[in-house]
């Protein structure tokens, strides 16, 4: 994998982003490619800077993609996608956002907290472009910070896990041990323990610090889940992007074990269809709604800015009911949801 090269003066003068990515020798993703879908020349030109894994991760990035796809279908226009690499530096992320803004894409959306620092710089350089960032807060009059109460949805996942486990032993796998993913862990563990304090909870992270490979390593996810299963866990919740696909595969191979998906309703993801009967539920984070709302606001000439939080009360997060596997738990889950919304239950954001 090559690091993104600094654009030459000739490249900056180029009006075509495709030429920037080829003639100037820069890379936009692990496979050195971006993708674009054209509309009718009207509508909106959406620039999507994906996190590692990109479109097709069956989780976080795919949820963002659904929001952009819906907006394109409704308003017309086009989408340009560039995807992060696990080897990205701040300069790489800044270049990716700048490429999209320079090529006239508006809005430009950074999918993931890793774009926070770079977006702070790039948004200031392009004040007439509307920027959106998912899962982080960036100060700027032209930035919409799209955030979610992951801990609240994860609390409900913990309640479901506690009520379904037969071994009184469950697990949590996080992609990277960063504050965002710690919110998933905190809510999940609290939900488990509030339901039954005697249940054992194993936790494991696939990568650490600036190493984001934990979000795009299904083999690591599978290995971690298998280890937990071998140690007696029978319900495993994974918040790790495409790495979660490997965890779900491992769980599906163990009779009586359950996986809890994340971000998208993974029971209904075609690429995971052969494992769906092992997916108890998914903690759905409606990134698609946040992305769509932002694009619509730009299309309507009233771009959202500031921090827009999608909470449990606003259905920003929820538990999927596909498969009917938590139908028998619904009364208890509804009770927990009500208590979170009315403040009777305060969900932690750190373990």
UniProtKB/TrEMBL annotation:
The protein's matches in InterPro entries, at most eight in alphabetical order, are given as:
BMP_lipoprotein, Peripla_BP_I, PnrA-like
Q: Which UniProt keywords apply?
A: Cell membrane, Lipoprotein, Membrane, Signal
Q: Which domain of life does the UniProt lineage start with?
A: Bacteria
Q: Where is the signal peptide?
A: 1-23
Family label: Belongs to the BMP lipoprotein family.
What Pfam family is a match for this entry?
Bmp
**What name is this protein filed under?**
BMP family ABC transporter substrate-binding protein
Provenance organism:
Streptomyces actinomycinicus
Matches recorded under PROSITE patterns: PROKAR_LIPOPROTEIN
| Subcellular locations according to the entry | Cell membrane
Q: How does it sit in the membrane?
A: Lipid-anchor
| Domain ABC transporter substrate-binding protein PnrA-like, first and last residues per copy | 50-348
Please tell me one Gene Ontology term that the record gives under cellular component. Answer: plasma membrane
């Amino acid at each position: 994998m090559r690091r993104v090269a600094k654009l030459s003066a000739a490249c900056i003068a180029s009006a075509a982003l495709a030429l920037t990515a080829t003639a100037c020798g820069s890379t936009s993703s692990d496979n050195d490619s971006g993708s674009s879908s054209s509309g009718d020349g009207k509508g909106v030109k959406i620039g999507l800077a994906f996190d590692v894994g990109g479109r097709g991760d069956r989780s976080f990035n795919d949820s963002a993609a659904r929001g952009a796809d819906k907006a394109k279908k409704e308003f017309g226009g086009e989408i340009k996608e560039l995807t992060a690499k696990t080897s990205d530096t701040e300069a790489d992320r800044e270049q990716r956002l700048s490429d999209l803004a320079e090529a006239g894409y508006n809005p430009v959306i950074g999918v993931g907290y890793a774009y926070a620092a770079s977006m702070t710089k790039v948004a200031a350089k392009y004040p007439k472009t509307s920027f959106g960032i998912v899962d982080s807060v960036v100060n700027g009059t032209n930035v919409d910070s799209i955030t979610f109460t992951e801990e609240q949805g994860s609390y409900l996942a913990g309640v479901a896990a506690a009520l379904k486990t037969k071994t009184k032993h469950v697990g949590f796998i996080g992609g990277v041990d960063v504050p965002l993913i710690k919110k998933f862990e905190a809510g999940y563990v609290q939900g488990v323990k509030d339901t039954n304090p005697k249940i054992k909870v194993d936790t494991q992270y696939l990568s650490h610090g600036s190493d984001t490979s934990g979000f795009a390593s299904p083999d690591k996810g599978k290995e971690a889940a298998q280890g937990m299963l071998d140690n007696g866990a029978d319900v495993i919740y994974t918040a790790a992007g495409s790495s979660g696909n490997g965890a779900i595969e491992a769980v599906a191979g163990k009779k009586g074990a359950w996986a809890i998906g994340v971000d998208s309703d993974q029971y209904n993801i075609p690429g995971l269809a052969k494992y769906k009967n092992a997916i108890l539920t998914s903690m759905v984070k409606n990134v698609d709604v946040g992305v769509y709302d932002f694009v619509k606001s730009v299309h309507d000439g009233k771009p959202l800015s500031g921090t827009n939080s999608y909470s449990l009360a606003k259905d920003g997060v929820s538990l999927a009911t596909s498969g009917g596997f938590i139908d028998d738990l619904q009364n208890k889950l509804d009770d927990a949801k009500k208590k979170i919304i009315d403040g009777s239950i305060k969900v932690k954001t750190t373990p």
